[in-house]
Structure formats: C-alpha cells, structure tokens
Design brief:
- The complex is a heterodimer of chains A (349) and B (266).
- Chain A has one domain.
- In chain A, 64% of the residues lie in helices and 3% in strands.
- Chain A has 14 helices and three strands.
- The C terminus of chain A is likely disordered.
- Chain B has a domain of 176 residues.
- A two-stranded parallel sheet of chain B has the order 1-3.
- Chain B is globular, with a radius of gyration of 18 Å.
- In chain B, 41% of the residues are buried.
- The C terminus of chain B is likely disordered.
- Classes of the chains: A mainly alpha (349), B mainly alpha (266).
- At the A-B interface, helix 2, strand 2 and helix 3 of A face helix 2, helix 3 and strand 2 of B.
Chain lengths: 349, 266
C-alpha cells in the first residue's frame, strides 16, 4: 500500500501545506524525515519573509510562526538552496524520464525526445546534462550513479513532480508571461490553494496511470499518495478501468487548464469552479467504477457514454471548445493529449 | 516643542509597544530615528526569541510579525547590544542625577547619595563609577560624562526615572532580580499594564522636572509618553489599582518563576 500524505491535515496556513508538498517531492524517502522537516521550515520561513518584504516600506501586517522565523538565517538559506536543488533534480528527472510515457498513456503515442528513444537510460543522460547548474557533473558521473541518485529517489514522487511540472508550465509560465523557472513556480504555487488542489488532483491521475507504463514499473506501495482531505480518485485500478478512466482524466485536465486560463485573476471564482469540476469528476468516477467491474467493460462503457449524455456531451463540448479556442488563440491551453505535439520544455533552475 | 509619543498608537502587539518605549529611552534624539527604529526591531526580535524559549508552544501557535526578521543578521546583535548599553546609561544617569530631586519634590527632603551632595557634577561622578563595569571608562573626565551621559538622558529623564522606580518597587522584589537589566525589560515589554503604569508615572515626573532648578530642563525639551487617551494621573498612589497590579504580578510570576530565572542576550 502506498504511503499517504494528507496535506490538509492539521491547522496549517496554505503556504505551510504547499511547503509540505514540496518538501516531500524534494525528500520523499521515509528516512529523510529530518531533511524534509528542515526544508519545510526553510520554505515557510523564506515565503513569509518574502511576503513581508514586499512593497516599499515592508508589509507589517504579514505574520508567521515564530518557530520558522527565529531560525538562523544563514543555516536556513543553505537548507533552502539545497532543498530547491533536490527539487530541481526530481523535476528534471521526471521531465525526461516519466513525462514522455505519461503523455503516451493519454495519447497512445510514445515520442522520441531530442531524437532519442525515451528509455530510462537515454533520458537519464539528458537529465544529467541539464542538471549541471545544480552541481551535477555529467561527464564524471556514470549512468548507474544517475540511476541511483536521480531516478531512484524520484520514483516515489514522480507523479507529483509531473503534476507540478504540467500545472506550473501550462499555467504559471503563461500567467507570468515568461518561461518556466522552478524557483518562481514554487513560490507562486506554494500558497495558492486552487493550484495546489489541482496539482494534487493531477498527481493522483498520474499515479493512477503509472501501472500502465511498461518501461518502468513503479509499484503501488512505492509511490506516495498525496491527498488534500478526501481522496480524488477512488477507482479500482484494473487494466480496463485504467484505459477508460484515463480518457476521462485527459478531458478533466484539459478542462482544468482551461479554467485556469479563464479565471487567472479571480482566485475565488477559480476555486469554486474547480471544486464544482472535481465534484463532477467524482460522480463520473462512481459510474466508471461500477462499469469497470463488468467483464463486458468496453461494450458497457460505450453504452454508458450514450446513456449518460452529460459525459458524452462533455467529451464533444470540450473537444469542440478546444478546437474553437485553438483556432482563436494560438496560446490556448492544451491538454496532455495535445502536449505531445508541444516542443519539449526544458525546466531550468 | 514638546514631542509626544503615543505608545498605544497603531495595531501593535504588547511587546512591540513596550519595545517602542525602550527604543525611545535608548535613542531619544530627534535625529536618532534610524537608530531607534533599528533598535526597536532588534528588541522585538529578542522578545519573540525569549518568549518562545519560555513557552515552546507559542513558537507554533502565536503568529508574530515577520517584518522584524527580514533584516535579521549578525549586525543586529550589535544593534541590540549597543541599544541595551544606551538604556543602561539612561537608567543609571536618571537614578543618580534626577531621582534624588524628584523624590525631594514629594518628600521635601533632598537626601545625599553615597555621602555626596546631589549636584549634577557629583552625581555624574557616581554614575561613571557605577558604569565602569559596563564599558564606561572610569578615567574619562566629567565633561565627557555630561556630553555622553547627561545630555542624551535629559529628554527622557522622567521616563528613565519612572522605569527605575517601577522596577525597584514592583519587578525586582517579586522576580528576585539583582543587577540584571535584561529580565525586567523583558517582563515589562510583555505586560501592557506595566508599560501603562510606567507611562503614567513618567507623566507625573515630567510635570515636575521643569520645576527642579538644579536640573535646568525646559518643558519643551522633554519627550511626553502617553497611552492613547488615558487621562493623566497626578497621584502616584493611584497609578494602577492594587488588585489589578496584584493580578498581573501573580500571572507574570507564574509564567516566569522556575521556568526561566534569567533572560539571555542574543
């Protein structure tokens, strides 16, 4: 059984919950609890001070927990830098090793990356070359070192890192009007509840898709399951169910990114729209879960799509909307299905 | 022109209001705004650090103002040290030079201190000797003491005297404090009642100071400390009700006794 991390547990401020997520992505191992706690504190401290120092004459209304603020500034900054470098390693490794396969899970097409077959070995080579800014020595470290130091620690959180990568590169880079920068993305995301919720949601969807990826096997009990209070995904993971549910997931993600685009300046509206969408998703999941247990799944699934017109309409509408949006707006958001067409993004430090 | 400092002004926590009082005590000069602000922040930061050492849960449960920590660094320890030394100078100078005269204003009797007539010169000699252990050079002449001790103390002499009296009458006996500057300051900063009491006593002294001929301080030279619209109290016996003070003492004693006998510096 996978380890469960409920980010909504306890009386914490949004940025403290967000920091908890990033601390797990940076240090996912059970034995890394100390490093994780330290990084979490450093993230919370840095974010609070960043908010307080905004404006010409400081923002005196910003308050934070003394437990973070009284930390030694030099030590805390070192922990922060080290943690962000770890985070960069997880994100870059995920970008190269896992993203091509996660895209393929939605599109059915496994594409080459920079002319290379997306095997773990090839992709780790690419990841190593792109991590030189984080102190990685591509010419001295062998691929087996990369497997041990990059891929192994990334495996338990690869779905979460992928979710962060998709949401931040699709939404935040558009919002900022600049390319994806990891540290910017972390501090823009850390206290944004709708964005965090969406990352949790997408992370669960990716986690659900992981068993269908043949090139690397990440077992259920190896991955960390991130929750925000109640779980988003509750469908039993039979192969048949995966295929169908993943199709629905693809649509939901597209819709989610569309909602971000439309409501980027209104957090309340964004939040309520997303919650509505998630509720809707849960309802559809129940239908799918029931259908998946039927041996004649495909036949029944087709009839469900016809019977529950809201699902089929949603499929048609979302596709039609996307096509319309893409025609009108060259920068219109693309769902994971369309992402395979995208030029590969290279996450930078 | 008389400068008025309202310690209750703004949406500040008790320790921040208390720190405002002590930062004026350390740096009362009009041209010392930058030093005062820096010291105020250093005091607030120190109070937060000490508070969570006493009450560990507070570190997680009581949110504090983050801006105090934005410019946290090595130089801030020096700012705190320097400011505390300045407070020490004000308190010792006020106790030696002004307090005998303020007491005489009520009792009618001007008592000698250490066998000396309480002239400014004699009392500055006494102050210099008292401060020898705290970085003051004993062999420096009296004119240096006049410039570096008496001159900066003059605008807040009433407030420094009020704090000295409050400490010796209320704080030191219950907390068993002897020769410690930090603990009484820390306790005072945490209690709105204590700061209000000191402010009220300071106002009583301020009205008397211009009348004391030996001190030669004009009314508009002084800084007036007030607590919101609280009416001025003319009778020192009626500063705070005895029951109110007893309650405050009890809660503070519970908090501090046995838990944290001495307050550390940075």
């Amino acid at each position: 059984m996978s380890r469960i991390v409920d980010l909504d547990e306890g009386e914490w401020a949004p940025h403290e919950k967000g920091a908890r997520f990033f601390s797990y992505v940076a240090y996912p191992d059970e034995e890394q609890q100390k490093e994780r706690e330290r990084f979490w504190k450093a993230l919370c401290r840095f974010f609070t001070l960043m908010m307080a120092s905004m404006g010409e004459n400081m923002n005196w209304s910003i308050r934070g927990r003394a437990a973070f603020l009284v930390e030694d500034p030099n030590a805390s900054n070192k922990i922060l830098a080290k943690g962000l470098a770890q985070l960069q390693k997880r994100i870059t490794t995920t970008h190269y090793v896992a993203m091509p396969h996660l895209r393929a899970a939605f599109t059915g097409v496994l594409e080459k990356v920079d002319g290379l077959q997306p095997t773990v070995g090839n992709m780790l080579d690419l990841a190593r070359w792109n991590l030189t800014d984080c102190g990685w020595k591509p010419d001295s470290d062998s691929n087996s070192t990369a497997k041990t130091k990059l891929w192994k620690p990334t495996r338990p959180v690869v779905h979460a890192a992928a979710a962060f990568l998709v949401i931040s590169s699709e939404w935040l880079s558009r919002k900022e009007g600049a390319g994806f920068r990891m540290s910017n993305a972390v501090f823009l995301t850390i206290n944004n509840v709708p964005i965090l919720l969406s990352i949790m949601f997408l992370s669960e969807l990716f986690r659900f898709a992981l068993p269908s990826i043949k090139n690397f096997k990440i077992t259920e009990d190896e991955s960390i399951r991130f929750l925000w209070g109640t779980p988003f995904v509750d469908v039993s993971s039979t192969d048949d169910a995966s295929e169908a549910v993943i199709q629905i997931f693809g649509m939901v993600i597209s819709d989610m990114l569309e909602i971000f685009r439309q409501n980027k300046n209104n957090s309340d509206l964004l939040f309520s729209t997303l919650m509505q969408m998630f509720d809707d998703f849960r309802r559809k999941q129940k239908i799918l879960a029931g259908v998946a247990s039927n041996p004649n799944f495909h036949e029944v699934f087709r009839s469900v799509l016809t019977k529950h017109s809201d699902i089929s309409t949603k499929v048609d509408n979302s596709q039609a909307n996307r096509q319309q949006a893409n025609q009108n707006d060259p920068m219109a958001p693309k769902g994971p299905a369309a992402q395979s067409q995208d030029k590969r993004r290279n996450p930078t430090c | 022109m008389l400068r008025i400092v309202d310690l209750d002004e703004g949406d500040w926590d008790a320790y921040e209001k208390g720190a405002r009082f002590f930062s004026y005590l350390a740096y009362p000069g009009e041209e010392e705004t930058a030093e005062r602000e820096r010291f105020w922040t250093a005091l607030c930061r120190w109070a937060i650090r000490e508070s969570i050492r006493i009450d560990k849960d507070a570190a997680w449960n009581v949110p504090v103002r983050a801006a105090h920590f934005v410019r946290d660094g090595k130089s801030d320890e020096k700012i705190w040290d320097k400011g505390m030394t300045q407070i020490h100078y004000r308190l010792v100078t006020a106790e030696c030079v002004a307090l005998p005269h303020l007491k005489a204003a009520w009792t009618g009797v001007l008592v000698k201190l250490g066998g000396f007539e309480p002239t400014i010169g004699n009392m500055l000699d006494l102050a210099r000797w008292s401060l020898a252990d705290y970085g003051w050079k004993e062999d420096s002449d009296n004119s240096a003491a006049k410039t570096k001790l008496w001159k900066p103390t003059r605008p807040v002499v009433h407030a420094a005297a009020a704090y000295t009296v409050f400490c010796s009458e209320h704080l030191c006996p219950i907390f068993d404090v002897v020769d410690d500057l930090k603990l009484p300051i820390f306790i005072t900063m945490r209690s709105t009642l204590f700061i209000r009491s000191i402010t009220a006593l300071s106002e009583i002294f301020r009205l008397r100071v211009p009348g004391i001929q030996q001190l030669r301080i004009k009314e508009d030279e002084l800084v007036q400390f007030k607590w919101g619209d609280e009416p001025a109290v003319r009778d020192p016996q009626r500063l705070v009700s005895k029951a109110e003070l007893a309650r405050c003492k009890e809660s503070m004693t519970k908090l501090f006794k046995g838990v944290f006998p001495r307050i550390d510096g940075h």
